[in-house]
């Protein structure tokens, strides 16, 4: 009999963007824009951004097939996104998570607050790796918004 391992972790990341909440929100909602900063250039990305809609990323990580499936549970335009996600490597489920992204007006810009609650299965992914990867994606969003000036 194999031994199963379950770890739980919550992290919160914050970023400030010098554009209004609508522009930052749009970078999450627009399939072409989100594919650039979220999925990377070598991954397949599909986004149906609506409550009940799904997002899927198919790619490679360290030579393994990566599948990231998300379902959108709650969307309040320019204010909040809540989704649930499953991450698998080579067809083995490794992480389940609930993510809340808040877009808070902050002067002329936006304070983004991302909170993720995760369940990590059998050591396939570590909470610190997930936090680092999410931070890298938010850094890519920063670069996207700095390059375009808006998300459009």
TrEMBL record:
InterPro entries associated with the record: ASHA1/2-like_C (IPR013538), START-like_dom_sf (IPR023393)
CDD domains linked to this entry: SRPBCC_CalC_Aha1-like_7
Residue ranges occupied by any Activator of Hsp90 ATPase homologue 1/2-like C-terminal domain in the UniProt entry: 19-146
Family that this chain belongs to: Belongs to the AHA1 family.
Protein name: Polyketide cyclase
Organism: Micromonospora musae
